[in-house]
């Protein structure tokens, strides 16, 4: 092999380890060495699980040698975000007061990944309360983007995306209530699919009370990868049922084969925000890639997501104010408290009767999109109208919050309606501060994450993986075996 083991994608790793061409112990050691080399500068992984990972790797090698069956992720090194329970480890959620909240058991997503044969090498950073599109907190510190300090790593799964793109594990677990998978994917040039409502079982055994209804209906668990094909390999393991989530939807990963060719809607609409020329070019590339892949792409005027997006985020802010507000005031830093004050100012929370009415209206918004997606099973949209922002932009008053979240209507609207949405890089922009990936979004029919990932694969086939130019920028050898 002419490239180091840490550069292999999850599909290749699974093939190599299941055939015993490379041992899980060798693969895990390579991922840990990469983590030790690059994480000190990035601070993406905030809990090192090297010893535990190596013990598991040896056990998996022994299982293979004894003829025991292997899972689809056999020997794949990955990371888990610190806001999800992993037995015996603190679910800090980026909050100093939670530093010693030790999980009594694994969350469903952790259990599913382990059952599939994955090896957890570390736990990744998140902002306080996992409620920023940037990643910094007083407990673990700031995560940096491997492309450079001029770009935020995104949030709230910023540690996961920075780690994956720097070569620290092939996959990174994350979650998304308003964009927390897609923001960091876009910031780092990674690929992800935000699953639809009910697709991935979710629950934290350490939680002392149930989450609010908006959190239950908008938040989902997922993975960040550097290769779109890795999502086809890994997502079926994530969606395996877990009885602890009573609202999980037990559907297979692959749905019925759609009519061919697949019709795809296309929009450049960014409403009250200017569309940057580089984002426009990224949209064009995504469109052309899907046309070349045999899809029929038509420009459309979609339902106005200003209404659904702002309704959803203001409803979420209403719930946050009541259910999270006391904890934020008691345990949050002055920075996060100031940010939430600005959130509440820019997205006035729905409360009382108004909150009940907007929750009822949610069905109307979802129905409009169901009708559109019946005609166009996929829709290409912008994700952000501008290239990704700089670190701490959301701390810079109303203008900062508007650039970070106000312009992200295409992000949180999909959470409110419970639709799957992928984020995939389709352009490497040459900007004044240096090269920067530009991701676009692909919205899919309900429970058709597989179609979204198919489209991501087609775009990646045309554009290439963004990790390759990143690793060249980092001074790495990226030659193929």
UniProtKB/TrEMBL annotation:
<dbReference type="Pfam" id="PF01425">
    <property type="entry name" value="Amidase"/>
</dbReference>
<feature type="domain" description="Amidase">
    <location>
        <begin position="26"/>
        <end position="452"/>
    </location>
</feature>
<protein>
    <submittedName>
        <fullName>Amidase family protein</fullName>
    </submittedName>
</protein>
<keyword id="KW-0378">Hydrolase</keyword>
<dbReference type="InterPro" id="IPR036928">
    <property type="entry name" value="AS_sf"/>
</dbReference>
<dbReference type="InterPro" id="IPR023631">
    <property type="entry name" value="Amidase_dom"/>
</dbReference>
